[in-house]
Amino acid sequence: xxxxxxxxxxxxxxxLSLYNEKDCNTSxxxxxxxxxxxxxxxxxxxxxxxxxRYNGHMADARxxxxxxxxxxxxxxxxxxxxRPVMRLVHSGEAHAAFVVEEELIASISKRRQLFNVRCVK
Length: 121
Fold this sequence. Notes:
With 121 residues, this protein is α+β, with helices and mostly antiparallel strands. It has helices spanning 50-64, 69-79, 94-111, and strands at residues 7-9, 18-20, 27-34, 39-46, 85-92.
């Protein structure tokens, strides 16, 4: 597969293997999908490049898994030799991305437990 000149290859994020660096001013809404349960466990939004946020989640899991339910979930996957799958669901202007994130959290949390702090009961 031939990569565009301004793309970065990142193997740790399955469906975001190519990310265009010129999109850095864009906000991205993503979900973290559990490969064991086959469902979405977290909805997030970032203004940085998605792979950098993904790596932040991995670092948080290693450092904070005793204090944070999301980090504990990710850490448990790492202990099994697995990782959550990050799926990009929206890219655009910051306010629109925030609205999409809020709507996704509201919609998914009605049916499933998410690790988003706004949803934890």
